[in-house]
């Protein structure tokens, strides 16, 4: 399988490579934010919009899920947040004239960046079977197409319903209600491809698939481990929290294969020291770990903690272990046998560096471990996160202030979607409450996650695919196979704000249903409607759009779901008042309150400034709702990815001008890349070993046990301080290299951070 570069790829002629930055933010971040906002929105619209981002009376940033502090700056947004808002609030438009001018064949070679830059979608569009382009369609006719194709299926499980992390709580709740009313649990979502490993490990070990910290815990921590995460690009407002923690005396250790500018030094643009001064050094120590070596590092820490307890009783929190945990003896017996030879090989770190970090562990009373995709997208990701839990349990660092688990989620409501029931494996208690509230019998059998949905489309077992937001083609692994599966569908439906590649890879029939964005006013006859979101730390709050909609033809996500459900289900679930829900979102929240624990008095509490925190038994009560009724220590065999001689381990990553699959620009300022994305970062010695020189072009070819050749052509090699034997390149350009069947044990998450590849020079 070979992916051609996009038609407008800038190539070597425009691509410039400079030295990586040694700090994040500062004046360049301000300049970049204003430039992107001005280009997309204009000066006045930019000012009015950006001053409302993440405010208590404003709208939630459509970017990441980092929580808002209690006391907020007037500019409570980061550079990437400004880019996300500018993308959505752009004045550019994709009208029916655009589709009249462009066939799908015309659009196919275009890049994700080019497609996104065309602007906001304005009309519902339909590609009939056999047609070469989309044409306008009325909303009623669009819903009739969906109802017809769903009714024609042999079984409800022949449809799959994807969800992006940008959907509101209200939309997500109604979406899963519609899908289960239709009769399936095929609810793949973006969590399946990112933090599913976190949810799997945490549910097993502490009884809830969410992190255990609040923002104040970071401020109170003695030690913060930032592992497999690049907050400078992916969650820039986290840098302000780390800066505050440093000012209060915290130590920060960064664990990552690449040195990231944001963890080296942060120039806070809201402070004079960040504008004219040197900023704040964040990481006290940087452990440049090999890809997938994180489990070995935490096993080393766990072994050393047990040995420290032998030498100095009281090092461990034995009272916590005895009262609140299960399985300590079995865990300890295994942990004491951890092999230093295996640890050093897996991590690629000198032993002294690990022991230096461990001295900070011993000195700290309160520890927070933060992580992201660097931990979750390996075959052994779930065991790795279990060992992170083991590490914190040993000293009672779960369920007390200043300590705990902090999986840093991506899109702004990805955690809320799961809370609302977007899950292919719902528990019986949730289904019991949902069925009782709406007087129907929800399906009990497990549905397809994202990877299984692709397999089912490939095999002709799923014939209709509906996506509530997102860019499924660009987010999914094994790009060619994913595209093949979607094209086999009888109907694909994309509920979207912007044009993206998933609109180009159409089924036999395809619909584009344009919706309101987070920034826009949602006006109904009953008045302006508000939606809610849940951040990465379990806080639920309102989001109020203020801008005029991009087109008079747009509907809200809630309205689209309600009308789609009415057209499809008719009276099949008679107790669901779809028209009432569309008219007044308070009525949706009334039902959420009755179905989902923690949302008592939802409408009143969410209207309080700042919203409210959802209950978290381990954090709030040191109560663990696991199978044992306690926090579980686990025994995990040490694993780490290995590449054969002459091969490399590749990780896919984001550029700084990118958020998830949305490409804002062609620069990665922090890594010194300008006007291009087809670059491959690798150690200078690995270049030399392969007879390559800086600037050479190579094809990247992944190798997997299925024997299928997956090739990403024409990448420019860039010498970079990576660990030997490891390399990195941007997604979605390299998603083609991730085999569909290469997934994490338990969670089924694609292994996008440890792909075995070889390089072939381009003549």
Automatic annotation (TrEMBL):
Compositionally biased residues, Basic and acidic residues: 1-15
GO molecular function, one term: molybdenum ion binding
Keyword Methyltransferase: no
InterPro entries noted in UniProt: Asp_de-COase-like_dom_sf, MopB_CT_YdeP, MoPterin_dinucl-bd_dom, Mopterin_OxRdtase, Mopterin_OxRdtse_a_bac, Prok_molybdopt-oxidoreductase, YdeP_MopB
Short name of one Pfam family: Molybdopterin
Residue stretches making up the Molybdopterin oxidoreductase domain: 120-495
Entries under SUPFAM superfamilies matching the protein: ADC-like, Formate dehydrogenase/DMSO reductase, domains 1-3
Cofactor(s) demanded: Mo-bis(molybdopterin guanine dinucleotide); [4Fe-4S] cluster
Source organism superkingdom: Bacteria
Keyword terms: 4Fe-4S, Iron, Iron-sulfur, Metal-binding, Molybdenum, Oxidoreductase
Domain annotation Molybdopterin dinucleotide-binding: ranges: 648-754
Family recorded in the similarity comment: Belongs to the prokaryotic molybdopterin-containing oxidoreductase family.
Designated name of the protein: Formate dehydrogenase
